[in-house]
Amino acid sequence: MENTKKDIRALTKDELIQFFESQGIPSFRGKQVYQWLWQKGVHDFDSMTNLTLAHRKLLKSHFDINHIKIDIEQKSKDGTVKNAVKLHDQLVVESVLIPTASRSTACVSSQVGCSLDCTFCATASMKRMRNLNPDEIYDQVVTINQQSLTYHQRPLSNIVFMGMGEPLMNYKNVLASIDKITDPEGLGMSPKRITVSTSGIPKMIRKMADDGVKFRLAVSLHSARQEVREQIMPFANKFPLDELLESLKHWYACTKKRVTFEYVVWEGVNDTREDIQALVQFCLKVPSKVNLIQYNPIDGNDMKQASSQILDDYIKTLTNSRIQVTYRRSRGEDIDAACGQLANK
Ligand code: SAH
Fold first, then answer.
1. Ligand 1 touching residue 262 (CB < 6 A)
2. Which of 56, 97, 105, 114 shows the greatest Cβ crowding within 10 Å of its Cβ?
């Protein structure tokens, strides 16, 4: 028999309350169920112990509770934990806990696979299979929060949407997941501690700004020269740098938040004075900072990180122009958990 039950976690709080009202049951029951699902994270209706047996039975006859399962948990020697996460339809995404002395960061996926074609990213070798639902994104955060509590006796301090997929191509669900993550009846995290990373889709950056979102924005820039950027991020031919820049100015005007540019320096790709100058000029046009990321080699290409001399050159030139720059060492490389290495190996 075909399963016609709906996933109760696909309902908003209002829809849940409406369901109870439509059955002639007081609306506070809807709130109770919402808390069981989102605050306490139960996986079956019988765990909802403050509901009557009749109400539990009613819910069972209408709904399933879909949830993710950790398939494989791998620990790196630097403390990074990579999870292969199985979804209700058996597809798999990856999410990562990245601990430092002062922080615990969750890196979460927003899509199964990715439709973009960045030449340096392992996820690009997988087709995009589907978007994640809000609850599937939220569950990754809850799971990693648990791991942080278990391994480091502290809750998550930060969340980055830098796992598999392009968050702005699953905008609605990403936003809905962030609503739950920040809702006091969900995880109650501050949006300031959440960063959404995009390959740079101008139309969607404008929309986010207009929607008044409160989280932070990072853009994977990698080159401020259109012809170079198109070589390594071919889809960028549809999103020219000047349009990207205009959208970021709009973002800043609406949010007053600086954007972070993520940037890898590769030998023979973006390692000349001209590349450095182009980045400086780009950064001077919109309040921003630069996060230089270590390149994590992937199978099937021979791109190589530029020498530390070139990196120093980038850092000095940016600093001299009063542009803040940080250099991020990779984490979890030994378990393929570092940036761009997520591909369900
Ligand atoms: N699609 C989004 C989020 C996923 S990628 C985006 O493009 O921003 C997260 C970050 O890892 C991006 O900055 C991306 O450019 C970077 N990245 C991808 N592959 C990498 C690799 N092999 N080494 C280092 N960083 C990589």
1. yes
2. 97
